[in-house]
């Protein structure tokens, strides 16, 4: 199907985005890569009155930058650019490994890191990575800015704690440093939504895990795999039963944990 | 809204409604019907074109967002005298198509492989093409065609 009608806005500075969102409030959606938003519009699952297109913002970085022990992703850093970034390969190899599993190359050409976080899909990989690494979202609205830690960003399925008028201007993911990390997922086809996925991080022998598709929000779970899996709340759906997802979580969790601890 | 779409080297000035998808503007306004439309939510890959040098789903992009972008479609592959692009030729030789509906999307996805990394391993190649659906061929001919075209790159 085709998107329903909307008024289209094309700001060229971040301040203009603030102004537009302040005026338009909850009636507006922000468009960046569009790889989640446009399907939703095509399927008429949403019908925002206004679309604010970030793709014409001037002087935006198209690559991540290093800033104070973290990698900072502006609103137009595409998944493809992050996947191929030498900085990411060097300082946050977990992300490079994960991006390889995010949809298909043609989707990664357009989709953005910030957009994937803002979309807050618990079945997507990047929110889980954000939770695991305890990343931050730099959020702004007209006249104000704030930093939202990953643990306070995700409110539920496709829902963040952002208020109307706010948008994410940057996502910051801490560098891996000497920490071991690994990612595992099981999907019916490479690039499809995973039935279950897990990212693992080992810090001085201590393990943290974050799962994909195993509950309404991605959680950072510390301790052993068994304890972590016990705290997950997967659901039955067309593709897999909750019981099967839990089975996958145990196996993939053990595999990721072993790799992360071994690589530390 | 007036936008400029640069398609296969030619700039087109078109007046489009903001909600119009790039796939529909290519097909209906520019009459470039080689770009096919299957699922319209990014799953089938039939509508894949090159946008600023990278493959992208034209059904997941508004034409207004493509304003000023360099777009390549399947119509741009063959030479001016109709000579097939090496990929197209390989698809014909290796039975990479049957009904042909998915072929433009496969060709434009394969074009990125052909131009960037023509000698991928089989696993890499299958992954690079993994976002495209074909319901006739079983993929073996398609993979063989892309591999053969890649091997022909000097």
What does this structure look like?
- The complex is a heterodimer of chains A (264) and B (154).
- Chain A is α+β, with helices and mostly antiparallel strands and 264 residues long.
- Chain A has ten helices and 14 strands.
- Chain A has helices at residues 14-24, 37-42, 79-84, 86-91, 93-99, 105-108, 113-119, 125-133, 225-230, 242-263; strands at residues 7-9, 28-31, 50-53, 65-67, 70-73, 136-141, 144-149, 154-156, 159-160, 167-174, 180-186, 196-203, 206-212, 221-222.
- In chain A, strand 8 and strand 9 form a beta hairpin.
- The longest helix of chain A is centred in the C-terminal third of the chain and has 22 residues, at 242-263.
- The radius of gyration of chain A is 18 Å and the shape is globular.
- In chain A, 50% of the residues are buried.
- Chain B has helices at residues 22-29, 86-93, 103-116, 122-128, 140-151, and strands spanning 2-7, 10-15, 48-51, 54-57, 70-72.
- Chain B has a five-stranded mixed β-sheet with strand order 2-1-5-3-4, with helices on one face.
- Chain B starts with a strand and ends with a helix.
- Classes of the chains: A alpha+beta (264), B alpha+beta (154).
- The A-B interface holds A 1-8, 10, 31, 34-35, 38-39, 41-43, 51, 53, 55-56, 80, 103-107, 109-110, 189-191 and B 1, 17-21, 24, 40-42, 45, 48, 51, 54-57, 59-62, 64-65, 67, 109, 112, 126-128, 130-131.
Provide a compact summary of the structure.
The complex is a heterodimer of chains A (264) and B (154). Chain A has ten helices and 14 strands. With 264 residues, chain A is of the alpha+beta class.
What's the helix and strand layout?
The complex is a heterodimer of chains A (264) and B (154).
Chain A: E1 7-9, H1 14-24, E2 28-31, H2 37-42, E3 50-53, E4 65-67, E5 70-73, H3 79-84, H4 86-91, H5 93-99, H6 105-108, H7 113-119, H8 125-133, E6 136-141, E7 144-149, E8 154-156, E9 159-160, E10 167-174, E11 180-186, E12 196-203, E13 206-212, E14 221-222, H9 225-230, H10 242-263
Parallel strand pairs in A: 1-3, 2-3
Antiparallel strand pairs in A: 4-5, 5-10, 6-7, 6-10, 8-9, 11-12, 12-13, 13-14
Chain B: E1 2-7, E2 10-15, H1 22-29, E3 48-51, E4 54-57, E5 70-72, H2 86-93, H3 103-116, H4 122-128, H5 140-151
Helix pairs in contact in B: 2-5, 3-5
